Amino acid sequence: MFLGLDIGTSAIKAVLVDDAQSVVATAETPLAISRPQPGFSEQNPEDWWQATLSSIDKLKAEKPQALAVVRGVGLSGQMHGAVLLDKAGAVLRPAILWNDGRSSAECRELEERFPALHRVAGNLAFPGFTAPKLLWVRKHEPEIFARMAKVLLPKAYVGYRLTGEMVEEMSDASGTLWLDVARRDWSDEALAATYMSRENMPRLVEGSAAAGRLMPELAARWGMTTPPVLAGGAGDNAAGAIGLGAIKAGNAFVSLGTSGVLWATTDRYAPNPESSVHAFCHAIPATWHQMGVILSAASALGWWSNVAQQAPGDLLAPLGAAPQAPSKAIFLPYLSGERTPHNDTNIRATFAELDHDATRETMTQAVLEGVAFAFKDCLDALGAAGTRLSEADVIGGGSRSRFWIAVLASVLGLPLNRIEDGERGGAFGAARLARMAATGEAPADICLPPRRIETIEPDPALQQAYAERHALYRALYPALKGVTS
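^ that's the sequence the OP posted. Answer follows.
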């Protein structure tokens, strides 16, 4: 039996997986986000810990015998968050999260201080990444920075509370801007650019390797016969890829979660920071990946659902199973700014091309298409980095909508696969990593793809129409930037 934990932004999710890779039980504990100022996004690390305890306690109440024989624990986590600890391991301030935009000025400072950043880290300096956050703390909270001994990412902090060991793995570390992504090691030069050193960093392991063992008192709390091994784990997207079996070059998926990801597995380090493509390590050895990331995907539909005062399912039902023509309206989904390809924290969303005939259905379809156009921007950026995709799986909450997948297929010009358990998320991938760490089994033997329910092909009649709408969508960005920046 293996336990996967997903340290998310909205909840801590736990899943028990047996030796046949069947999910035996799941549990979830919700989390809240603090926004003390516009553009700020924080959480208290103690909330993650208490929610982790609560989720595993729920599993014990439901499946005590299964939990008792857990051999490995794996962690998936929200990326980029900065947990600052003092010499005693105490938290110094709330964690600054991945969707926090306060450090735009510090991004420019970091790139000036370390001109080789793009080559070494494989990415532009985004405000969401970890390193600029530390420059912000040094500038605005110097007394905190002076007391800071260690910086951990969210899942590494939970791992520390589980084992007493401060350990990070390659996929999550790639999102800090402190990792030499090609060498899979901390970069002394990148750390020095933020007035830090290796002493401030956790130990590095591969995601499928053992990082420690569960503390005996916690094993006793959950009735475990032997303290299980803790795997290095993975950042949330890499954990999702492990769960999908996306471990070979060319494997790809679209994640329609709160944010959106277009993922491509690679067998080499292939950065293209000029297009705001992320080039990160995968959670298994000698493997990397590229990602285009949009900041509002399913959350854009959630926003529209709140405005329209209708549940998402009720909004989608009148649209049917597939589009007949593009919406007459256009939606730019920049509710929280955008990463790929713009790296723009100030840009904001808008509707365009509205007229008196616009209906709720018109605008709902425009929201779905706007997110699809943002993914097309990601696909074009991956293409500029030399990556060509032939198909992709679709995961995340948005994967429930066949209509949305049909829109995406025609906008992207790719066959898209609906899969079984498309919402299982990072916790399942974390459980697979736990198994590899505990047993030494090879990724190819464990990371098997899920069953495909349906492949949705692009509609040739719609592809040209969507290409024209996407061109208009792209043309609106410069005008909108002039208004909102």
